[in-house]
User: Fold this.
Amino acid sequence: MAKLESEKDGCHAGSEKLKEAARSAGKSELLEQYKKDYPLGPHDKPQSMCPAFGSLRVGLRMRRVGTILSGSACCVYGLTFVSHFYGARRSVGYVPFSSETLVTGKLYEDIRDSVYKMADPSNYDAIVVTNLCVPTASGVPLRLLPKEINGVRIIGIDVPGFGVPTHAEAKDVLSGAILQYARTEIENGPVAAPDSGKSDRPTVTLLGEMFPADPVGIGELLAPLGLAVGPVVPCREWRELYAALDCGAVAAIHPFYTSAVREFQAAGREVFGSAPVGVDGTSEWLSSVGECFNVKADIVGKAKNQFIPSIKEALKKSKIKGRITISGYEGSELLVARLLIESGAKVEYVGTACQKTKWSDPDRIWLESKGIKVKFRASLEDDCAAVEYFKPDLAIGTTPVVQKAKELGFPSLYFTNLISARPLMGKAGAGSLATVVNAAISNKKRMKSMVSFFEGVGKEDTSGIWEKSPNIHPTFRAHNLKKIEKRKKAAKAAEMI
Assistant:
């Protein structure tokens, strides 16, 4: 059986060796659960940033919640760097390890000591401890940590890159864990009400991170039905978890939160998919809400008559003309595609790194009925191939997709910062994308001229401007690959001795 004996074995050991080591260390049940929750596509490697960034971000955005990471120093450095880049504004705890502490089990003791030291109820409601790849593969048993210290809740999770496909789904790992903890608290007795108080109407909990104005817009849609909008999961403070669980139904705005959905279903809450985007989306979504809460058909109809005309008018005033490809890893790619199509755009391809679930079916079915290719668990290669094949007026995607599009001379927009950072729901969402999308499409001529201007500067190992032709040695690359392969075979042979 594979065994990790040092930090050096971890990051570069390879996915299969890490999985084998984790199973031999007692993590088989965890890996099987992740396999069910986050089934892989044709590829088995995360192509977003380190998955643990997703769970780290969720914890860092919660008030009075502390964070401790256990993993390789390089991984922790990268995660803390990017968390501060995204405005964390708080410290991230780190428990380092050596070959000795990893093998002897002292790493777990060091983590436990750090948790006890940090568990100050005047500062924290909860502490989240996260195992990265090497501690997970080594079987560090966070489940043995106390559930509570001095009134501070302790939540231990494993978020290995070889078990959780994307950082979007790692958000679900932590969301599910803290919902489970909160649900247990509710079952064991009275819990504190959130600071905002309890709604006097039945509420709809919203599942998935979204632009701050969207919950407000959804609340306006729900009001004529006698309902109110509940908390958004992932939540911003612990007490909101109680209110989220105390809802009438859950709207899976982002449909990949399978662990969180399991906790809501265990609490007896109904979950439905899609979101109120555009005319068709808003109409279908209001019907779904009406069915969940047994709202009379005439009341739902009046609500539609109140909102649909204004959404139609907003879409009419914000027309988009052009061929677009969409890809990303946020989970809202299908919703954005629907909105762009109703705005007049011709969407050729929609790719999402997230998995297909029953809650994504309403959007998938709607898009496919329009003849649009929808790709779940899309790889970077899938997304780049779509850009090359369709030659769109605009490519919306992740950083490397945007880079590929620019190399080909197509205008492009980064999905996370330029599309997700806008309202999508209701009337506000209907006109939110036109300005930025139309402005980007209008740059097509400029992009082509830039490609022409930089023609001949080279790329990859010949990039830059050369006084003479660069010396290219293709035989060196082939020779080096052979050396690498020989080292791998030698290492494999050494394992079998």
Observations:
- The domain at 7-165 is CATH 3.40.50.1980 (Rossmann fold).
- The longest helix spans residues 15-37.
- The chain has 22 helices and 14 strands.
- The mean pLDDT is 90.
